[in-house]
Design a protein that fits this description.
7 helices, homodimer, CBS-domain, alpha+beta, two-stranded antiparallel ribbon, globular, 159 residues
Chain lengths: 159, 159
């Protein structure tokens, strides 16, 4: 059971300790599993994958590495734009590298949250960088979204 | 300028005071403007309204009172389901009252955040209740979303 009184003999309050820790929480500690499709997947199948996994953003790969991101907004645009969603591959409608905002496991949730707000996206792919013949490639190992941050807000506030 | 050292003579730390306040922050303090359409608006025009205002959820009213909610997910479903989005009114595809989770200005952000996570939605309409001839009606006066909560997380952590 958590003590009701927040002060310890050290003069450091329980809340303060929690608060100090919150600033240090890393993306890797609250990440979710990423939903990934290949560039050649049809828009329709990508939408199905989005619904089955109940996510707002899907990461697109080619040869195992991140090449793009598609959001619900992209899907709506392509639907109302008259795209043949059964034939067109997701690679055509996605936002393509290098125009993707990335997150890394060891950066703070605070920094990731700032990127999410600044770039007006719902989630970020968490990636690992690999350098092959002098060129950068990114492997998708997770995702961090406004949902993860809202959950964290509840966790830190609900004490 | 904010003092660098977090302790005051009272023994209460600056962080603790902020933390105590965070728990008390009310929905009304961080709310956004709601995007509202009438039930008779076409699905297409509702989508346009969603894009113009860059929101993920639109609130639907009839006679000035809340009757439903439509999300990006609903729009994608109706698109791939072959709905004639120019003819069908948004009232047909929306989630209808009373199956809508509501928020009130004077409840805490923590409680609203819990509703958002529990019911797996992106945002909640902030409403004012009116009773007319013994029946409850709700006027939409704002919205609170995962974006508002992510912004609040940045504000409280980034100090």
């Amino acid at each position: 059971a958590r003590p009701k009184v927040g002060y310890f003999y050290t003069g450091k309050s329980e809340n303060q300790e929690i608060f100090d820790k919150v600033k240090e929480i890393k993306v890797g500690e609250i990440k979710s599993i990423p939903v990934v499709v290949d560039e050649k997947t049809s828009v329709y199948d990508s939408i199905v994958s989005m619904f089955l996994n109940d996510v707002g953003t899907i990461f697109v790969i080619s040869g195992g590495y991140l090449t793009g991101v598609v959001s619900r907004k992209d899907f709506i645009k392509s639907c109302i734009g008259g795209t043949d969603i059964n034939k067109v591959p997701v690679g055509i409608i996605m936002t393509r590298m290098p125009n993707i905002v990335l997150a890394f496991e060891d950066e703070t949730v605070l920094d990731a949250a700032k990127k999410i707000i600044e770039h007006e996206v719902d989630s970020l792919p968490i990636v690992e960088k690999e350098i092959i013949k002098g060129k950068e490639y990114f492997r998708v190992i997770g995702r961090i979204s406004k949902t993860n941050i809202t959950r964290l807000f509840i966790e830190i506030t609900n004490i």
